[in-house]
Amino acid sequence: TTHDLSNRTAVVTGAASGIGAATAVALARSGAKVVLLARRADRLAELAAGITAEGGQALPFAADVTRDFDTAPIRDAFGRVDMVVNAAGVMLVNPFTDSRTDEWARMLDTNLAGLLRVTDTFRPDLVEAAQEGPADLVNVSSIGAHLTLPTFAVYSATKAAVTHLSANLRTELGPLGVRVTNVEPGVVDTELSQHIDNPELVAQLPAVFAGVQPLSAEEVADAIGYITSLPRNVNLPQVVIQPTSQF
Ligand code: NDP
């Protein structure tokens, strides 16, 4: 489905794959200019070429959300940003007793501090844009924010933090006209679980999700297109999106 996002300019983090990539495509098809932000430049170039080939506008922007980056190329290409979709994230699950402090640091730096860095970077744009039209901050959290599961302690903690952060940011940004939406997907078919550094846990995944038909990244992207194309006075603060068969 396309939504009306003409005259909008979005930065989508995590755009190299999965939910971020699908969201970038969906927003571009709805008429938005999209900045594709992730680390893998080759993936971003390929995606940008695909979007351009179908008549959309995309800027590949290779950056790491755990580090500061220069936004000059974004301003030069597209000017002011009025939508930020924070989809960059990593899910590195392992038993807590394995003390994978390296993984904890990566998840905290990417899922929480990285999201904060990107949000802080574009916050002045969003606030300014909100004076003239819609402005959106969309944070991709997870139903993991509310789950208590073995091996998920730190991942779930980062997502609980994102969910709570979104709700609190909304109290400051909403009155300034910036919509804040926290999206909590259930299981989505993406590359997310490919980074799990534990063959035993990876082998167990199919059994954990037996009977569940995962959402496609495109289905989540369509919801984000809907959320951001609503009349500017209408905000969905919290959107949980799950496969029908997942409880
Ligand atoms: P993917 O692994 O396919 O996508 C993750 C994206 O994040 C990639 O584009 C990756 O690109 C990017 N990324 C990772 N680290 C960084 C970094 N340091 N800087 C910039 N970009 C980075 O998985 P999903 O699409 O599933 O994940 C997207 C979001 O959705 C995540 O926040 C995840 O937690 C959340 N989510 C996913 C669910 C699922 O079942 N799949 C369920 C609930 C939530 P690159 O490596 O090139 O940087």
TrEMBL record:
Residues 8-186 form the Ketoreductase domain. The keyword Transmembrane helix does not apply. The keyword Oxidoreductase applies. It holds the Pfam family adh_short. Keywords: Oxidoreductase. Belongs to the short-chain dehydrogenases/reductases (SDR) family. This is Aldehyde dehydrogenase. It comes from Saccharothrix coeruleofusca. The lineage of its organism: Bacteria, Bacillati, Actinomycetota, Actinomycetes, Pseudonocardiales.
